[in-house]
Design a protein that fits this description.
- By secondary structure, this protein is of the alpha/beta class.
- The strands form four sheets. A seven-stranded mixed beta sheet has the order 7-6-5-8-9-11-10, with helices on both faces.
- Strand 6, helix 7 and strand 7 form a beta-alpha-beta unit.
- The longest helix has 22 residues.
- It is globular.
- One of its GO terms (cellular component) is endosome.
- It is found in: Endomembrane system; Membrane.
- This is Methyltransferase.
C-alpha cells in the first residue's frame, strides 16, 4: 500500500462512518492546544549542539527548538545534568527498555539457564551501564489515537514493526491499513474473533448455561497475550485482565497492546515467580502461549496454582489438548498427571481447548504429598511481595477452607481484604483512604483541565490500597497499580478489590516500553526511596517517569515540599511543564502537589 492517501482511505469499509469521523476529529484535536500550550512538537537537530544552529532544519514553520543535546550518555556518579538540559538519546534508542536490553542480556548468556528461558526475564544492567538521557520518540511519531477507537486502530509509525503482521496476519492479530495498524480481534486460537471464543469458554465452564461472569470469573491472567485482543473483548463483561508476554521473537506485542490502550506488561514465566500476589485470579488463560507446562516437573503449572484462587480455572488452548500426532499425546499425558497431582479437575475438553478447575481440596493434596506425587511448600509469609522470588517446585497447602468470599465487580471495589488486617491496616484506615482519593480525583481533574479522551493508560506508582484506581473506575481509564517491593504487601488487597497491578522496585527501571502511559501518579514515592543516590536518586526516578510517559502525558507528584520544589526546578531540563498547587492531605493539612505535562518533542 502506498502512502499519501486521505485518512479515511486507511480504514476497512466495515469500520463505518463513526470511526472515521472519530479519528478525523482526533487528528484535528492534536493541534488545538492544551493548558500547557500548543500540541505541535518542538525539535532538536541530531547534528547540532545548540538551538540557534538547529533552527534552520525545522520542518514546520512556527515551531520552536530546545537546547537539549543529542548525545548517548551513561549514568555517572555523581550525577550531573548539563545546563542545556538532559541529553537526548540518539533516535535508534527510541524503544530502549533498560532491563530487557538484548545487548546486555547477550553478555549474560553464559551464566543464564537458557533452557528455562531465563534470558527472557528481567536483567537490569548496573547503574554505570544504564543510559542517562531522554528516550526520543521514533520518526513520524503521532499522538496516540484515543480510546475506544484505539482498540481497533493505532498509528503505524508509533509501532513501526511489520513482523507480527507478516506472521500472524492470517490469524487476524493485526493487519496493515495504510497509515494504521488494524486489529480485527483475532488470535491464534480465535482467528474468527475473540467474542465467539470468550462465549465458548463460558459455555464450557457452565455446561452451556452461562458466560464467564456467571462462572465466577472477574480477574484473568493472560499468559503470552499477543496483542491483547482477548483482554480487549473481556472488557464489555467488566472482566479485568492482566496480560503479559515476554520480549521475544513476537516483537513488540506488548507495545502494540499498550498503544491500543489495553493493560499489559512485559514478563516471562521462566525461573522466578511472576510479580503478582498469591490467589489473585479466577482464571489463567493460555492460548498457544509458548510455555512448556509439562517440562521441569511442571514447575510453571505450580506457579499457576499459586496465582489461582480456589475454584479458579486454567484454560489451555494448544495442540496437546486436541492433536494426536507427533509428541502431543505424550505431552497431554504429562499434563494430566501433573494437574491430577495438584488435585485439579478437568471439567471440559473440546474445540481445541481444555479447562481445569483448581478445587479447594486440602485433603487430596495432603494425600498426594504422602504418596510423593507432589511436594508441599514450606509456610510462606504472604505479607512479603513476590519479587525476584525463585519458583518453587511445590504447592501451598492451606488448611483454612474459609477463604474470603469476594463479590462480583463492581461491588468488589469496596471490599476490605482480610489481608490488610494481617499487616496492620484497619478497616477505618481503608475506608478513609477510599474517601480521600474520591475527593482528590475531583481536584486533580479540575486542576488539569483535561478532556477524558486524553487519558487512557494510568499508572499509580505507589498504590497503597488502590483507592486512587477505585476513584477512577467510572472513567474510561485503566490503572496499573504498583506496590513497591520495599513496602508491605497491599497488592493482595488491591486484587481483592477487583483491580490489577504488580510489585516493583523503583530503584530499577520497570518492564514497560517507552511512551506507554498517559498519566503517572506518584504519592510520596520519592520520599519513600529517600533520594538514594547510589541507585535511585530523584533524577533517576524522573528519568524513568519520562521514559514511560507519552508525549503530552500528565505527571502528578505529591510529596514533601523540598522534593516537589526540586522537581519543579529540574522539570525544564526534562522538557516538562509543571505547576505547583496546594491540596489537603489525609491529615487535613496542606501539602504541595506538582502537576506536570511532558512536552511533545522530536529529533530532526
Amino acid at each position: 500500500m502506498g502512502g499519501g492517501y486521505a485518512l479515511s482511505s486507511a480504514f476497512d469499509s466495515k469500520a463505518g462512518q463513526m470511526i472515521m469521523v472519530s479519528l478525523l476529529l482526533m487528528a484535528g484535536s492534536f493541534y488545538l492546544g492544551t493548558i500547557f500550550g500548543n500540541n505541535a512538537p518542538i525539535y532538536v537537530s541530531q547534528n547540532s549542539s545548540n538551538s540557534s544552529s538547529s533552527s534552520s532544519s525545522l520542518p514546520v514553520s512556527g515551531t520552536s527548538t530546545f537546547t537539549n543535546k543529542v548525545a548517548l550518555t551513561y549514568r555517572k556518579t555523581p550525577l550531573s545534568i548539563p545546563e542545556s538540559g538532559m541529553n537526548v538519546c540518539p533516535i535508534t534508542y527510541n524503544e530502549y527498555i533498560p532491563c530487557h536490553d538484548p545487548k546486555y542480556v547477550k553478555t549474560l548468556l553464559p551464566v543464564l539457564d537458557v533452557s528455562r528461558r531465563e534470558d527472557l526475564e528481567r536483567h537490569c544492567p548496573p547503574p554505570e551501564k544504564r543510559l542517562f538521557c531522554l528516550v526520543p520518540p521514533p520518526a513520524d511519531y503521532k499522538l496516540p489515537i484515543r480510546w475506544p477507537t484505539s482498540r481497533d486502530y493505532v498509528w503505524r509509525s508509533n509501532v513501526n514493526h511489520t513482523h507480527l503482521a507478516e506472521v500472524k496476519g492470517g490469524q487476524n492479530w493485526v493487519h496493515e491499513k495504510d497509515q494504521l495498524w488494524w486489529f480485527p480481534g483475532g488470535g491464534t486460537h480465535f482467528k474468527h474473533g475473540a467474542p465467539e471464543y470468550i462465549q465458548r469458554l463460558g459455555n464450557m465452564m457452565t455446561n452451556e448455561t452461562g458466560d464467564l461472569r456467571s462462572a465466577g470469573v472477574y480477574q484473568v491472567l493472560d499468559v503470552g497475550c499477543g496483542v491483547a485482543s482477548f483482554s480487549a473483548y473481556l472488557l464489555p463483561l467488566d472482566i479485568q485482565t492482566m496480560s503479559f508476554a515476554p520480549k521475544d521473537g513476537h516483537e513488540n506485542q506488548i507495545q502494540f497492546a499498550l498503544e491500543r490502550g489495553i493493560g499489559a506488561m512485559i514478563a516471562a514465566l521462566a525461573t522466578k515467580q511472576l510479580p503478582y500476589p498469591t490467589s489473585s485470579f479466577e482464571m489463567v488463560h493460555c492460548s498457544r502461549c509458548r510455555v512448556d507446562w509439562h517440562e521441569n516437573d511442571g514447575i510453571l503449572l505450580k506457579e499457576v496454582n499459586r496465582l489461582l484462587r480456589p475454584n479458579g480455572y486454567f484454560v489451555y488452548s494448544a495442540p496437546p489438548a486436541y492433536r494426536k500426532d507427533k509428541d502431543y499425546p505424550l505431552i497431554w499425558d504429562k499434563l494430566v498427571n501433573l494437574t491430577t497431582a495438584m488435585c485439579w479437575k478437568l471439567i471440559a475438553r473440546k474445540v481445541q481447548t481444555a479447562i481445569w478447575i483448581k478445587e479447594e481440596n486440602p485433603s487430596c493434596l495432603m494425600q498426594n504429598v504422602d504418596l510423593k506425587l507432589i511436594n508441599s511448600c514450606d509456610a510462606v509469609d504472604d505479607s512479603k511481595p513476590s519479587w525476584k522470588t525463585p519458583l518453587g517446585n511445590c504447592v501451598q497447602i492451606s488448611t483454612q477452607t474459609n477463604s474470603q468470599n469476594l463479590p462480583p465487580r463492581p461491588e468488589r471495589l469496596s471490599v476490605y481484604s482480610e489481608s490488610l488486617s494481617r499487616i496492620g491496616i484497619s478497616q477505618e484506615e481503608f475506608t478513609s483512604d477510599t474517601i480521600f482519593w474520591q475527593k482528590q480525583i475531583r481536584n486533580y481533574l479540575k486542576l488539569m483541565n483535561v478532556s477524558m479522551t486524553e487519558i487512557r493508560n494510568v499508572m499509580d506508582m505507589n498504590a497503597f490500597c488502590g483507592g486512587f484506581a477505585v476513584a477512577l473506575n467510572s472513567l474510561p481509564f485503566w490503572v496499573m497499580n504498583i506496590v513497591p517491593m520495599s513496602m508491605k504487601n497491599t497488592l493482595s488487597a488491591i486484587y481483592d478489590r477487583g483491580l490489577l497491578g504488580a510489585f516493583h522496585d523503583w530503584c530499577e527501571p520497570i518492564s514497560a516500553y517507552p511512551r506507554s502511559y498517559d498519566l503517572l501518579h506518584a504519592n510520596h514515592l520519592f520520599s519513600h526511596y529517600g533520594n538514594n543516590g547510589e541507585v535511585c536518586s530523584l533524577e533517576d526516578l524522573m528519568l524513568e517517569m519520562d521514559r514511560i510517559i507519552r508525549p503530552q502525558g500528565f505527571i502528578i507528584i505529591r510529596d514533601e515540599e523540598s522534593i516537589t520544589s526540586r522537581i519543579r526546578d529540574l522539570a525544564p531540563k526534562f522538557l516538562w511543564d509543571v505547576e505547583l498547587h496546594s491540596l489537603k492531605n489525609k491529615e487535613k493539612k496542606m501539602e504541595t502537589v506538582l502537576i506536570g505535562r511532558k512536552k511533545f518533542w522530536a529529533i530532526v
